[in-house]
Description:
- There is one protein chain.
- By secondary structure, the chain is of the alpha+beta class.
- It contains 9 helices and 8 strands.
- A 6-stranded antiparallel β-sheet has the order 5-4-3-8-7-6. It has a two-stranded antiparallel ribbon with strand order 1-2.
- The longest helix is centred in the last third of the chain and has 28 residues, at 237-264.
- The protein is globular and about 55 Å long.
- The termini are far apart.
- The model has no long low-confidence stretch (mean pLDDT 91).
Amino acid sequence: MPADLKRTSADKPGTSPANRSLERGVEILRAFRPGSDLLGNGDLADRTGLSRATVSRLSQTLVGMGMLQQEPLRKGYRLAPAVLSLAHAMRSGSTILQVAAPLMRALAESERINVGLAAPDRDEMVYLESIRYSRRVAFRNVVSGQRVPMELTSLGRAYLASTSAARRRTLYEVFRARRGKQWPPLLVEIEQSIKSVRESGFCVASWQPEVVALACPITMAETCYSLNVSVSTVESMEAVVDALTAPLLELREAIMSAISRRVDE
Length: 265
């Protein structure tokens, strides 16, 4: 991963040891993902690139702070309930979620579609809200906090269209290393999506079987979010685009207008 996507204060001249420990501690928390609830020192060292001695020391500190729970018999750690309380505080304090969630739900219910809102985190997109009302049963259940690949999804490509060229180049290096021989045709798709966002306001992607998604960027307070609508369907991509373009763009405008009114109040 390029250094500016995974850079700790240890890489920055003049940074204090306390800051280095803090950033390394955050990297340990980041190592936990769905499906890997219990991680040992070796797992954490592999995922963070830190030494086992550093991982052992910081993990014990995180246990003492209530961020991790230790299971001595299984020689591992799991996230503690306090981490969930932080996520709840983030959701309840998010202006865009307060504004967007009711509007998203109303559209999902009326059109019987899926509506999602996501934000970038390094080289992935993280769902902030996901409301699922598609008429057909999808192959997966998407929930708040779930991560999806930036380079494959409409959410990620809408973000790539709105970020800086320098940031995009850095991310492309990550994608190139991750995708190998798949990267050249994938780059063509991404560039087409970026062009679509700039010309039409949205892009479309289908990275899961029989699931078509449209997405557009929303920029708020220098943070770029991505809004999408999707359906599980056997209809053509063109038919889905015709049906969902207007609802997506109208939802985006409704969210932006509501945010603007809130700022003015």
